[in-house]
Design brief:
By secondary structure, the chain is of the alpha+beta class. The protein has one domain: Thiol Ester Dehydrase, Chain A. Helix content is 32%, strand content 34%. Strands 1-4-3-2 form a four-stranded antiparallel sheet. Strand 2 and strand 3 form a beta hairpin. The structure holds coenzyme A.
Length: 127
C-alpha cells in the first residue's frame, strides 16, 4: 500500500508540480498475493482532476521472474490534494485533458466515486 501511495503521489506531483498530500485512500482489495520470486508492477494514472484534488487509479500486477506470467493483484483509487508551497493550503491545478473514449468513460466513473467519497467525508465530519 505504501508503494501504491508513492506511485500515486508521483503522478499527482507531476501533474500539479506542487507539493501533494494524500486526502483519501479508497478501499483496496487484494485479489492475489505477490510471492517471493515475483516482481510487483504498479501502473498509476490520473482519472479525475477537480479544483485542487486529483484521483489516481493504481493497478497492481505481479510478474513471475522465471515465466514472465502476469496477474492482476489489486486496484486502488487514491485522492491527492495539491498545496500551495508557501501557505500549504489547497491550490488549484490544471485540468485533465481527456483524449480517448476510455479516458472519458473512466472519468465518468471517477465523478461518481468522488461524489460518494465526499458524501462519506461529510457523514464522518457530521458525527
Ligand atoms: C487534504 C487537506 C489538505 C484538505 O484540506 P481542507 O482544509 O479540508 O480543504 P478543503 O475542504 O478546501 O478541500 C480541498 C480539496 O480537498 C478535497 N478533499 C478534502 N478531503 C477529502 C477527502 N477525504 N476525500 C476526497 N477529497 C477530499 C476537497 O474535495 C477539495 O477538493 P477540490 O479543491 O478539488 O474541490 C487536509 O484535510 C489535510 O491536510 N489532510 C491531511 C493530509 C495528510 O496528512 N495525509 C497523509 C500524509 S501525506
Amino acid at each position: 500500500m505504501h508503494w501504491v501511495d508513492l506511485a500515486a503521489a508521483i503522478v499527482a506531483n507531476r501533474h500539479s508540480r506542487r507539493p501533494v498530500v494524500t486526502a483519501a485512500f479508497d478501499e483496496m482489495s487484494f485479489l492475489a498475493p505477490i510471492q517471493v520470486g515475483q516482481v510487483a508492477l504498479l501502473h498509476a494514472r490520473l482519472t479525475l482532476v477537480d479544483r485542487s484534488s486529483m484521483e489516481i487509479r493504481v493497478d497492481v500486477q505481479s510478474e513471475d521472474m522465471l515465466s514472465g506470467e502476469r496477474r492482476t493483484t489489486g486496484t486502488a483509487f487514491v485522492t491527492f490534494v495539491a498545496l500551495d508551497p508557501v501557505t500549504r493550503r489547497p491550490s488549484p491545478v490544471r485540468p485533465l485533458a481527456l483524449e480517448t473514449e476510455e479516458e472519458r468513460a473512466e472519468h465518468a466513473c471517477a465523478l461518481e466515486r468522488r461524489r460518494l467519497r465526499l458524501e462519506r467525508r461529510k457523514a464522518r465530519t457530521a458525527k
